[in-house]
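In this section we walk through a basic example: taking a raw amino acid sequence and producing a predicted 3D structure, encoded as discrete structure tokens. The instruction is simple. Fold the sequence below.
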Amino acid sequence: MFLKSKQIDNILNLKKCNLCPRNCGVDRTAKKLGYCKASDDIYIASQNLHFGEEPPISGIDGSGAIFFSHCNLGCIFCQNYPISHLGNGKKITIEELSLIMLKLQSKKAHNINFVTPSHYSNQIVKSILKAKRNGLKIPIVYNCSGYESKNVLDFLNKENIVDIYLVDMKYGFDELAKKYSNVDNYVEINKVVIQTMLDKVGYLELDEYRIAKKGLIIRHLMLPNNIENTKKVLDILSDIVDVKKVHISFMSQYHKAYLSNNFPEINRKLFESEYKEGVAYLDKKGFENGWLQNF
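The resulting token sequence is shown next.
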């Protein structure tokens, strides 16, 4: 871990931002704002022991979750929209972020869980390296939307920054990704993301207490009136992973939020019958590992 800031800046470029597939190219060091609305200042909404993640992530003592403000997606149903869309949070420095990690480790967190980290990957890498020089030893979780830059992931992988990827597969159809999250070419980008992550960290590995040490977890949130989207996601996933080894978090927690009232088809909670149909297709495709949510 002898990377210098200049080496990081050359790849994770804040002067001509390339941290996500939007490639806005703005100079964030001059406080210019691209799509995500984040400058080079770090804003976090919270940092605490979190017990609401998947069991191997939260474990017994909790995940050391750091929730970042802003987001590179534009999901109109975002349940964290005050953070992601409105940018609520407090400004901290790279030094302070490294100290937060060490504090969470001292509280017996099983891992450091960066929630919505993509647009801060430059600053996050610098803070991780600083924290590791000062004794950080627990795994790093990269908890992201799945709309990621391959160049960023290649850098994270090459430098062994991330131990566990907790990644969304939101859409199987690009037209839905455009409609609900304002992104282009989500499906192909997401496929490459999953493959790149899997190539580095592999399938999920647990310790003797069934706490995650390393590997990939894929999340899919079912949307109302969109069972075909879920089926397409599972079709795509089954083509790129070993269905008997991959771990899927199959989520039913959708509820109407933010701007979903502008889209009548998703302006309601998910029906249990829809979720059961999704679970039945999950079984049909042969997926064996992961977690279901109760209604």
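Looking at the output, two observations stand out. The beta strands are 42-50, 63-68, 90-92, 112-115, 140-144, 164-168, 205-206, 212-221, 247-251, 289-292. Residues 186-201 form the longest helix (16 residues). In the next section we compare this with other chains.
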